[in-house]
């Protein structure tokens, strides 16, 4: 009886061993044919090939800045409520600096009231809101000419309080920035706010204008020898620079240090992702079983995609260095056959001990 039980145990081990299936996930490269896409339910399996990389690069190159942003050219500045003006009547300091010439310009400034008007001696109440500096200068010159012969009038703005650009997110300084008589560009606003270099997602800037959102990739626009073209900002524009704490790629499986990787640029290549975790485990990994699993929001409408790379070939590293992973991707490196077998045996040995003990017990009872 004892010999029969042990024979059954060995038969069970041999039968299970033929399956060569390790606990956990496993995908066989045999499912893939080079250059082809296979539908498997709601999963799309795609091999990483030069043709695939070429098509993805062409798609990214086609992405351009919105025409309406590039074509906008600022008009001459128009005065608004909250602006402070400094009005000079040459040779008449009593009008120009009623608070005294020793005072700061702000002490002699003229604030545009909430209703858009301002008061000036011998001129009266003037509707300033909506007028350019030159238009207001002409009005003041005409009115004060009734008391001042051949007046020489100059108007300047010493504090801009009416038109602002707001900023939020991963900036060091998020103070509102004024729109002035000198047009404000996107790069100037970002430079003044100072990007947080450690926490900012440089590829995710959002410019909101008149209720519409424009997503701008600062990293791509300024990559290599290219410089982003000037984009002029309007009053009321809102800039939001997201943090990169949710921009992660997850590297799991047979790598040296499985972990989640943050990145702040447009993308991270597969080579970079594997390099940051120490590379493939040389003892347990299977080079031809490298996968990038990319999900979608609605798998009923669009299949998720699994990209496969055969990393056993030296040429595969050239492909990996050109393949961009995206936030939320899972990079999975499968185990080698011997690794799966060793793990299988290690988990099966306790089971064989249980069978052996049961056989011994039954043998003793049979005696």
From TrEMBL:
Localisation per UniProt entry: Cell outer membrane
UniProt GO MF annotations: polysaccharide transmembrane transporter activity; porin activity
Domain Polysaccharide export protein N-terminal intervals: 73-157
Keywords: Cell outer membrane, Ion transport, Lipoprotein, Membrane, Palmitate, Polysaccharide transport, Porin, Signal, Sugar transport, Transmembrane, Transmembrane beta strand, Transport
Taxonomy, superkingdom: Bacteria
Membrane-protein topology: Multi-pass membrane protein
Residue stretches making up the SLBB domain: 163-239, 247-333
Membrane-spanning segments: none
Outer-membrane lipoprotein Wza C-terminal domain segment(s): 336-362
Alphabetical list of Gene3D superfamilies matching this protein: Outer membrane lipoprotein wza domain like, wza like domain
Entry annotated with the keyword Calcium: no
InterPro entries: Poly_export, Poly_export_N, SLBB_dom, Wza_C
GO annotation, cellular component aspect: cell outer membrane; pore complex
Pfam family, one: Wza_C
Gene Ontology biological process: monoatomic ion transport
Keyword Ubl conjugation: no
Family: Belongs to the BexD/CtrA/VexA family.
Official protein name in the record: Polysaccharide export lipoprotein Wza
Organism: Lysobacter capsici AZ78
